[in-house]
Amino acid sequence: MFNKAKNSPPDNKSATLIPPDTRSSTKTGTPTTSARPSLSVIGGHTQVEGDINSDEDLTVEGRVSGIITCKQHTVTLGANGYINGDVFAHTLHISGEVTGNLVAHHRATIHKGAQVSGTIVAPCLVLEDGSVFHGSIDMDPDNEVLKNAFADASGSMTKTTPKATDEKRSTTSANASEHNTTEAKAND
What we know:
Blueprint: H1 2-7, H2 10-27, E1 39-42, E2 47-49, E3 52-53, E4 57-60, E5 63-65, E6 68-77, E7 82-84, E8 87-94, E9 97-99, E10 102-110, E11 115-121, E12 125-127, E13 132-138, H3 144-149, H4 162-178, E14 182-185
Parallel strand pairs: 1-4, 2-5, 3-6, 4-6, 5-7, 6-8, 7-9, 8-10, 9-11, 10-11, 10-12, 11-13
Antiparallel strand pairs: 13-14
């Protein structure tokens, strides 16, 4: 009786046991590429000079000099991160230092300890206590810069050319001088 169980081929047991285990681990929350968005990270000891186009969430812990385009995803700047250039994203979380324009399709959050110099264009903006901001803010959802920047966000991503960015900067600078220029420091 015991000999029969020991002599039975292990392949039958494996074939019986493996499929339920595979199915159960998938059902209990094993991440798949469609369930968990991908993430790119620029590490704290990395410096990037040039434009970045990303079709996934992006976290910057290092230094970036150039245009960051991440129109359908989130860009997060860590507390020790630095960006010198414009950022176009669906959602922005800024904890480090930015010199340039921030354009968010949905929301921009400037966290405690962040320092931002430039123009922020976003329909929803959060400036936390302890953040420093010098520049202008435009929260009009019908802003031309916002409309032009995200006109192709639902389709394929297109690279913003430096010429187009310079035109946007000059338009934004002209608008900033014509409208209110804001210097704000959120206090604890």
